[in-house]
Amino acid sequence: MPKKDESQPLLVGGPADNDLAERGTAPPALQGAGSSTSPVHPNDCSSISTSKSEQSLMDYDPMMNRDLDHPTSNCDTLIHLLKGNVGTGILAMPDAFHNAGLVLGTFGTLVMGFICTHCMHMLVRCAHELCRRVQVPSLGFSEVCEAAFKTGPVPLQKYHKFVKNLINVFLCITQLGFCCVYFVFVSTNLQEVISHYLVRLDIRVYLVLLLLPMIVLNWVKSLKYLTPVSLFASILTVVGLGIIFFYMLQDLPPASSRPAVASWKQLPLFFGTAIYAFEGIGVILPLENNMQTPQDFGGWTGVLNTGMVIVAALYTSVGFFGYLKYGEAVVVGSITLNLPSSDFLAQSVRLMMALAIFLSYGLQFYVPMRIMWPPLKRRLQTEKAQRIGEYSMRTFLVLFTFFLASAVPNLGAVISLVGAVSSSTLALIFPPIIELITFWPTEPGQKICPWMVTKDLTIMIFGILGFGFGTYTSIVNIIHS
Questions:
Q1: What are phi and psi of 72, to 5 degrees?
Q2: How far is CA 77 from the centre of its chain?
Q3: 383: number of CA atoms within 13 Å, CB side?
Q4: Fewer CB within a 10 Å sphere, N or C end of the chain?
Q5: What is the predicted pLDDT for the residue at 7?
Q6: Per-residue model confidence as pLDDT tens digits over 102-120
Q7: How much of the chain is helix, strand and coil, in % rounded to 5?
Q8: Nearest Cα to 125, choosing from 39, 67, 48, 64?
């Protein structure tokens, strides 16, 4: 059994390795394959009659049944939301604008932010509805998908385990992909600083030098001990972004000097980088589940909208002014590499951002460990074997991200590939699928909103096209580079 401080991590949001039947009471919807409840869509698009047993399920309020030792305030949640969305992706936004053009990049980033935020709202709404059905206070991402299939249309109920495992696979791919990007980002910025003052070495040398510190850092098993590290990394990020804006906003050329729209062949790379930047879908449910007043999370002026407006404004500003300032000379992967090497302040920004990302590696690494370790732990009988097994697995996963980063040390291409493959799947494809299955009619006389079906199918098609074209273009870019 994990320790108390690890029982409600902000990065996962629930015991992803446990079945729904093991959590609280199981309602009739989960006791038979052919039985289901009558879902009521939050927007109340149809009039649905309910029986007394169904009404008792609907009366269950998951937010009133959460027993949290250390609930987070609205301000704490907003800070965690910003930290979960602002990482290496924001520094790659000038490169994204280079692949889209100044006007299309601005419009595309704001539209992408709107769609991603809407998908986050969909996920939270579905989680609340499914919590009522299975009568548990909270659910994680993979558990929401499992519950949607398990209580949805009868032909799909047998796939509930498969989709839960599929979500966990994509969560692991996403987080380990972030870890690969972090490896390359830190190495690239260190290479720029050391090559200016000392000697220029191949980037793989810096990857090797980082390997041991990364392994030691990720032997820390508790988020409790990573909290001050994360706070320090956040301070470095804020200071670094302030200095980056100081450089970007000086001597700006006219906007007409940059193309409004780039070549259509580059648009998939823009999609991959932009969707990678909006990387916070995995922290939405954990944040809402840990709030003291979860009713303040949604709504027009809630924590989610407030945080995502700030995030979208930051992404658009960095992308717009970074591309306007440096144009075609913008360095792929990170705006920090465009800052003047002769300035000590610019070099200090590279070091600050490299250290901040290095210290954030452990938080990204926590998610795949929490998903992958419990099944292996159950196979080890003694406490000593479990201790050795956990440290071995942590070391292996760090080595795995190291070898991937060494194989493709192209920062921009890795960011675009991770965004196209995994971020688009989690942020754009799964949420509309979950909403459709959650609120799909399961009994005669029930109806579903036509606009909801149209909207969800449109988002899914957009995500699938971005997944396909973005992945193909990123792989071609990696091969050519």
A1: -95, 150
A2: 16
A3: 1
A4: N
A5: 38
A6: 999 999 999 999 999 999 9
A7: 70, 0, 25
A8: 39
Amino acid in the structure at residue 262: A
Q: What are phi and psi of 291, to 5 degrees?
A: -80, 145
pLDDT in tens, 11-57: 454 444 455 555 544 444 444 333 333 344 444 443 333 444 555 55
Please give the C-alpha separations between residue 403 and each of 399, 408, 416, 476, in angstroms, as whole numbers.
6, 9, 18, 20
Cα–Cα distance measured from residue 72 to residue 78, given in angstroms and rounded to the nearest whole number: 10
291, β-bridge pairs: 72
451, pLDDT greater than 60: yes
Instruction: Report the predicted TM-score, pTM, of the whole model to 2 decimal places.
Output: 0.81
CA 168 to chain centre: 13
CB neighbourhood size of 394 (10 A) = 19
Instruction: Count other Cβ atoms within 10 Å, centred on residue 472.
Output: 12
- Band of residue 74 on the pLDDT scale cut at 50, 70, 90: confident
CA 86 to chain CA centroid, Å, is 10
The tens digit of pLDDT for each residue in 230-243 reads: 778 888 888 999 99
- Among candidates 129, 200, 184, 209, which has minimal Cα distance to 361? 184
